[in-house]
Amino acid sequence: MKELLRKGNGSVKASPQSLNNISGDIKPWIDFIDKAAEELIHSIESIEKDITTGSTTPETVLSSLTEIMDKFVDAAAEYESNVQDPAFLKNSRVAFHQKSNHIFSKSYCFNRARTWPQGYHGDYKTLEVVYRNMPMSDGIGYYLDLYALNTVLGIGIRNRMKILQRLLKEELSGRIHPRIMSIACGSCRELVEISPEITSSSAHFTCIDSDEDALQYSQSRLYYTGIQSNIEFRKHNALRMFDYETTKQDFGPQDVIYSVGLFDYLESDFLVKILNSLYNLLNTGGKLIIAFKDAKQYRSQIFHWFMDWTGFLQRYEDEFLEILSDAHIPDSAVEHFRDETGVIIFYIVSKQ
Questions:
Q1: H-type helices in 54-185, by residue range?
Q2: Distance CA 164, CA 142 (A)
């Protein structure tokens, strides 16, 4: 997956010249976001001091931190609505990251989502922290971790994994010797929970990812489940799967194909080609299981300002349905539903 989502220029610096040569209309908004950033940093530093001196309670810390973080998100949203130049906004976010890094680097979650040590957005180690839902830091970092883990997207990602496990169990219970493909498999967490069903159905899973570390981690994790003989790990760049004939030659027809994170990162025109290829790869009666994040249900500023997680595209339900239609997938073949938060939409496509 890393070749798909590799971070672009991680060393971008805010250009002082670009921030000085600005129009009079934008200058007040620069002052506005700078003031909001200063207030945020000062408030977090004050909370950190209270933690150190023991003059507060954990409940008060988390409540206060959430309030001031949400206040900055409001300010960032207002700033974005008034300063709409993408390059300028990116420069502003880089400047904020530099100014606030001495605080956010104390959080394992935020630091990882700013630096991407695996080299790409949404790596398996980052998602594993979200799945485990346990802060990895001390002091103010502990509470920043809590804030990150309890965002609506954090909750939605955990729900997404539970739903995926349920869907796979249902598919396995009704099939014998099914061929199942996981695209951008990451840590393969879902397979641990459903190992009995994998054994009883004699399923063959092909798990593909372009991150060798993720494949090794998954192989080690599944070693003690007794299903290692049912799993084939393949290092493969999923972008190549837009070509149906090549993909069919490489992997053969499948009964179930699923991917629940990757497609949020792919541009729509290319995603159409991949979904069309995968739909054609299914056997009759096969299922394509995919999930998207609905941008109407979360605040992107959390991930664009506090983090540097800009890789996943901001899409809405109408766009998802249009993509499926453009991929020549019949409307009658598609079912969809949301997780409890409403942020994750699952699409179940049946090969007719």
A1: 58-82, 86-104, 108-115, 124-132, 140-149, 152-173
A2: 29
Instruction: Show the CA angle centred on residue 301, arms to residues 128 and 43, nearest 5°.
Output: 95
In order, the DSSP letters of 271-290 are HHHHHHHHHHHEEEEEEEEE
Helix (H, G, I), strand (E, B) or coil at 347: strand
User: Does 7 have pLDDT greater than 90?
Assistant: no
Is the Cβ–Cβ distance between 212 and 236 less than 8 Å?
no
Is 4 within 8 Å of 33 (Cβ atoms)? no
pLDDT at 352: 83
Helices 27-53 and 58-82 cross at an angle (nearest 10°) of: 170
Q: Which helix (H) or strand (E) holds 16?
A: helix 16-20
Non-local (6+) Cβ contacts of 16 within 8 A are none
233 forms beta bridges with 207
Q: Which residue has the tokens 């219970």?
A: 173
Does residue 102 have a pLDDT over 90? yes
Q: Is the pLDDT of residue 139 over 90?
A: yes
pLDDT > 50? residue 264:
yes
The answer to pTM > 0.85 is yes
Q: How far apart are CA 307 and CA 297, in angstroms?
A: 18
Span 40-60, average pLDDT: 95
- Cα separation, 106 vs 3, whole angstroms: 28
Rg (CA), the chain: 22
* CA distance linking residue 71 with residue 25, whole number of Å: 23
Q: Specify the range with the lowest mean pLDDT, choosing from 35-39, 93-97, 221-225.
A: 221-225
Burial class (CB in 10 A: 0-12, 13-18, 19+), 10: exposed
In DSSP terms, 293 is beta-bridged to 344
Rounded Cα–Cα distance for residues 234 and 185 (Å): 10
